[in-house]
Write a structure and sequence with these properties.
The protein is of the alpha/beta class. The strands form three sheets. Strands 8-12-11-13-14-10-15-16 form an eight-stranded mixed beta sheet, sandwiched between helices. A six-stranded antiparallel β-barrel has the order 1-2-5-4-3-6. Strand 4 and strand 5 form a beta hairpin. Helix 3 packs parallel to helix 4 and helix 7 packs parallel to helix 8.
Length: 507
């Protein structure tokens, strides 16, 4: 049968299109799943796969190659394992895991890949950056000298934090570790610091409490929440802190200051142990793999203060670790203590005695120390730690009913007022001016004239009292040196007036 003219024209057009196509031979390597289960998969047939390369399964799910063998590849699943079974085809992507970055993520709740968890539309990304990035070199860093105020008197006066520091928050479960970190985030509402909260395996209720606290008391528009919930794939939980750090490094490169809270690295290590054991890696101490130290050091080393040539930005890390029965010498806690620049230890005994925040001053330290402390605060806090430690030692003897002389009694009464001043309600961070006034009241003996149960009222009324009687004290900044004599005299008189007003009211 002769072909029609229309079919002839169609064949002619097709021949022209085919002739214009660039045809070249290509090879597509396809592997297959050997076994799968519990968030991991073993793949064969992809010998050219690189470490940390993304693998794509037939179902569209992603995996991350973390264990390269001669015949097989161990990968962690980053999504739903549905549709993945033994024999399923898998392809290498040639790409590493990347996280979206940009200002559009601020105020949002997302997972490690930037997918929204708050019910909104996916935030537009300025670019995609690898979740695993090298830490800044030594020559690219600057000294950590500028303070990062937490708003907690016990921290800012005795365990000062600096922008670019790595300070571990450690303690037993339920002792207020997250509360300390959240108060530090809330205190940045009066600064330009961007706050990133990375949750690894935390309960949804706990995460929602943090988000609600930031909405009520903080600057939610400068916060980002990266969540790897307990119902997420273990691989996604493991990537969460790295992705959060990458999102923070985008602002670091712009010369901005970032505060990264990781809650918590104990669960992160447990997830990694689970994945490693499922991939049949040799277990080490407490069944953790041999590189459990490295996975945290390469993460926390990315926190830094950059040099002025690179914009002068900073990334401050506050990782959280959980101990069992106060055992800070356990494997993961000791690893993290050796990596970080100090630790804030929360004592369960202090917590149960209603001393909150329950910071154990003797076991807490900041290795950056007074170099980052505001000068006006440093001058007043120099002897505070020693006085408090002496009081704690003396108080132990008085519990046995030992008779003490008048001088010792005064030291103990003074120490009890220091302890009462260091107690602080949650979600109520103090400004630098309030902290200076409280330390001046302690140093000058103003609080010694008050009954112990009136010290809390003194602290709670202080902000309004200063705003009315001595507002210039509330305008003190981190760059101010020692208090001018005139301001110091006015502040002392203002504090004395407040103490007299409380004494007149009675208990």
């Amino acid at each position: 049968m002769p072909l029609s003219d229309e079919l002839h024209r169609w064949i002619g057009h097709a021949e022209v299109r085919i002739a214009g196509m660039a045809v070249a031979p290509g090879i597509e390597r396809i592997g297959r799943v050997v076994r799968v289960g519990d968030g991991v998969a073993t793949v064969a047939g992809l010998p050219e796969t690189r470490l940390d390369e993304l693998l794509v399964f037939e179902s569209g799910s992603l995996g991350l190659a973390i264990d390269l063998g001669e015949e097989e590849i161990g990968c962690i699943l980053l999504g739903d394992a549905g549709g993945i079974a033994a024999g399923t085809n898998v392809r290498g992507s040639g790409e590493v895991a990347r996280a979206p970055v940009g200002a559009a993520l601020l105020g949002r709740v997302v997972d490690a890949f930037g997918m929204p968890l708050d019910g909104g539309m996916p935030p537009p990304a300025e670019e995609l950056l690898p979740v695993e990035r090298p830490a800044p070199a030594i020559v690219d860093r600057d000294l950590v000298q500028r303070p990062l105020a937490s708003g907690l008197l016990v921290v800012d006066a005795m365990i000062p934090l600096g922008r670019g520091q790595r300070e571990l928050i450690i303690g037993d479960r339920g002792t207020g570790k997250t509360a300390v970190a959240v108060d530090a985030m809330i205190n940045q509402r009066s600064t330009e610091v961007i706050c990133i909260y990375a949750a690894v395996g935390q309960k949804s209720s706990s995460v929602n409490n943090v988000i609600d606290a930031m909405r009520r008391f903080g600057a939610i528009e400068r916060c980002l929440f990266v969540i790897g919930g307990p119902d997420a794939a273990p691989g996604l939980q493991w990537l969460t802190p790295y992705a959060a750090c990458t999102m923070g490094e985008h602002f670091l490169a712009q010369g901005r200051d970032v505060l990264l809270v990781i809650d918590d690295l104990t669960k992160h290590a447990a997830v990694y142990r689970q994945l490693s054991l499922l991939l049949r890696r040799p277990p080490g101490r407490e069944a953790y793999p041999g590189d459990v130290f490295y996975i945290h050091s390469r993460l926390l080393e990315r926190a830094a203060k950059l040099s002025g040539e690179l914009g002068g930005g900073s990334l401050t890390a506050l990782p959280i670790a959980e101990t069992q029965a106060g055992n800070i010498s356990a494997y993961v806690p000791t690893n993290l203590i050796s990596i970080t620049d100090g630790q804030i230890y929360l004592d369960p005994h202090l917590f149960y005695e209603d001393q909150k925040p329950a910071v154990n001053v003797g076991l807490s330290v900041s290795r950056v120390g007074g170099k980052t402390q505001a000068p006006v605060l440093k001058n007043l806090a120099e002897s505070l730690r020693l006085e408090y430690q002496q009081f704690l030692e003396l108080e132990v003897f008085t519990r046995f009913g030992t008779m003490v002389d008048e001088r010792t009694r005064k030291v103990i009464e003074h120490g009890r007022r220091i302890r009462a001043v260091l107690a602080q309600p949650q979600f109520a961070p103090q400004s630098l001016g309030q902290q200076v006034a409280l330390l001046l009241a302690v140093q000058g003996g103003t609080l010694d004239r008050l009954a112990l149960d009136q010290v809390g009222s003194f602290r709670n009324r202080l902000a309004d009292w200063l705003a009315q009687r001595c507002p210039e004290a509330l305008r003190l900044g981190e760059a101010d040196e020692a208090l001018p004599d005139e301001l110091r005299a006015r502040l002392v008189e203002t504090l004395a007036d407040l103490a007299r007003s409380l004494t007149a009211e009675g208990p």
